Amino acid sequence: MSQQVVTRFAPSPTGYLHIGGARTALFNWLFARGRGGKFLLRIEDTDRARSTPEATQAILDGLAWLGLDHDDEAISQFERADRHAEVARKLLAEGMAYKCFATQDEIETFREAARAEGRSTLYQSPWRDATPDQHPTDMPHVIRIKAPRDGVTVIRDEVQGDVTIRNDQLDDMVLLRGDGTPVYMLAVAVDDHDMGVTHVIRGDDHLNNAARQMMIYQAMGWPLPVYAHIPLIHGPDGKKLSKRHGALGVEEYQKMGYPAAGIRNYLARLGWSHGDAEFFDDAQAQAWFDLKGIGKSPARLDFKKLENLCGQHIAAADDAALLHELQGFLAATGQPALDDTKLTLFSRGMYCLKERAKTFPELLDKAAFILATRPIQPEEKVAEQLDTVSRGILKELTPQLQTATWTREDIEGLATQFAEDHGMKFGKLAGPLRAALAGRSATPSVFDMMLVLGRDETIARLTDAACGGD
User: What is the pTM of this model?
Assistant: First the structure.
């Protein structure tokens, strides 16, 4: 039986969940979920000065909002320091690592001499082949791995192809510092092995780290994972993504009102493709996602494309799920939640609110007629629609609507007939109706608004407007 796929996302909790990190998490999630595998989360919190519980929470919140659920408990790298040190000591005991007593001054002197002579500045410790009886007593030391000196290390990468590094470019990396704490490279390799990670899918800024982490795998006799180093995301100008390009943190995208499904779809397409497919759902993405579809060059962030996809996802979304996410958006942006009455109206009106809304603010803008309370205060330009003649027309129309069957066909038929009887086109009647029902000019159709608001509220608003100047 083939081995179960296990992927991992391993962020450092020193800030928010970056949009690039979110895409890395998504690729790992899609790859595991599409193969019935496991997607694990490891918090790389060994940098105690910069790691904060708030940043850890921001990462968890970002993943939860994106809908990227992980299996098992999240692992803290810091809490596994004893295990990392145990591996370093095992390598020491087996002659794969050694104690190095060189001081910082000695290392710097070596490097200065190497620079002056035009040699490699990679430190070559005189303690590499020293025997225990040659070791000084009670002197601080680090533990270094014995890097291979000859030949090459080949990183077989599913995205970058075979990457060859000459072994004389690899130094005898420190595994345990002088105070006995493990270094990052050791922690990552040990954790990936212990967690059973089969595929390491991460940013290509980690490509050189792979060669160093492979030294630990090989020294321990562990099977190597499959590597896939994905290109970073660039801004629209082709430069590395930074604050000048706008939103970097996932929570900012939530606050801008993009639906999570749209973000997932967009991020999946950012550097990966499946034929010509642009718009797809999670099930399709999980079924299609593979490492071969990842491009080698950096992907560019394109907000127009993102908005377009988000609009398609809002239009295709299940109404109840969309309402739930809308409530989440209101909470994230510090706006009051929709009460039960408004929720009912939103549910009723979702069919006409979803059309052409690319974000939740646009959806709320279309729903302004639902959110408005009587008496409606029309915008200045719209108020001009409610002149004496228009108010007279509304006064005459309102009683007829009171007796109408409240279906679109009947309301539309009645209003069209009313306009005809008064020798006008329906468009002439639509302006005052819009002003009375919403107080603004950009709205869904007046018939949609009437159906959503219901007979009583519609009649009340029309009556208010008709009597407005009395």
Answer: 0.93
